[in-house]
Design goal:
Blueprint: H1 6-58, E1 61-62, E2 71-72, H2 76-83, H3 85-117, H4 124-132, H5 139-149, H6 156-164, H7 180-204, H8 209-217, H9 222-249, H10 253-259, H11 271-281, H12 287-321
Antiparallel strand pairs: 1-2
Length: 322
């Protein structure tokens, strides 16, 4: 004989059978995972991937979306979009809206999160719920309700200002081109304020409480704690939260459409409303033209996403070096 123990030979087969059984169980588990993911993959492909691919294809066509005839026009739609002053007006309104909303949301939510994160703050759980409650409400319903809230004749905002003596007559907040965009910014910040607040509360939970206790022993005041402990440790989160807020601010179609519809005088016509009106609301729908505008706006969002990725990596590197 070769000298190999018989028990070693006899034990190899059970081990191979056990390994084979484990592999079959793993394969069955993986198969079940893919089966559960299949409905999501199918729906995502139908309602997200296919429309994206279709918008790129339609952007090269002259098509109203109804007739069977589709005329290939190449880059003519892109040339027309870039030469349209209303496209650049919508782009300017979108950027202005973002520049107004993002700093207010980020820094106001930071200050409130610091207050709610303090152990001395009473009813902190109640206030967290109250500020987050608007997030779960339907945006379109919020927009419709806000039309009544800011009504110049019977809205509670104007009635309250008139009763307090701050106004002699009601202000048409949504009907004046000077006040419409700031008003929608205020409603947008109120609507999604809770999301940014939760981000900051989660970031504050990463700061060890021992640091504040040590600082209090050294007679450091609240301002010194904020500048020496809180703010330096929150810098990586500031980048991430700002970029997340920036990206979410670019998606304001439902609120803007229900509150102002892009008016007055195109003062609140963001890019999404510009695309919507070209595709569906105009007298002669132009799906190819609207698709070209959507592709250009999508490329802008992709650039923001790449900027977000670079910012997140920089924030992660900043955290690891501390």
């Amino acid at each position: 004989m070769t000298g190999i123990p018989s028990n070693a030979i006899g034990g190899a087969a059970p081990r191979r059978a056990a390994v084979g059984g484990r592999r079959r169980r793993v394969r069955r588990t993986e198969l079940m995972v893919y089966l559960f993911l299949l409905p999501t993959i199918v729906l995502y492909g139908l309602f997200t991937v296919y429309p994206i691919i279709g918008s790129y294809w339609y952007s090269f066509l002259d098509w109203n979306g109804f007739e069977a005839v589709k005329t290939w026009v190449g880059l003519a739609n892109y040339t027309e979009v870039l030469a349209d002053p209303m496209f650049w007006n919508s782009f300017r309104v979108t950027v202005t809206f973002t520049l107004l909303a993002v700093p207010i949301k980020v820094f106001l939510a930071l200050l409130l999160a610091i207050l709610l994160n303090s152990p001395r703050m009473p009813w902190s759980g109640f206030f967290r719920t109250a500020f987050f409650l608007p997030v779960v409400t339907t945006t379109a319903i919020v927009g419709v309700v806000m039309q009544f809230v800011f009504d110049p004749a019977s809205g509670p905002v104007n009635l309250g200002l008139l009763e307090l003596g701050f106004l002699d007559q009601g202000i048409n907040f949504l009907g004046d081109s000077k006040t419409a965009l700031p008003t929608v910014v205020g409603v947008f910040v109120w609507k999604w304020f809770g999301t940014t607040l939760i981000y900051w509360l989660a970031a504050l939970q990463t700061i060890p409480r021992d640091l504040y206790e040590a600082a209090s022993i050294d007679k450091a005041g609240p301002l010194r704690m904020f500048t020496s402990i809180t703010l330096p440790l929150l810098k990586p989160f500031l980048i991430i939260i700002t970029l997340l807020t920036l990206e979410s601010t670019l998606q304001v179609f439902d609120l803007m459409l229900t509150m102002t519809g892009g008016g007055p005088f195109y003062a609140t016509q963001v890019m999404e409303i510009y695309i919507y009106e070209a595709a569906f609301a105009s007298t002669t729908p132009r799906l190819g033209f609207a698709s070209a505008a959507a592709v250009l706006f999508g490329l802008f969002i992709c650039a923001v996403g790449l900027f977000q990725l670079v910012g997140i990596r920089a924030a992660q590197k900043m955290r690891t070096t501390k």
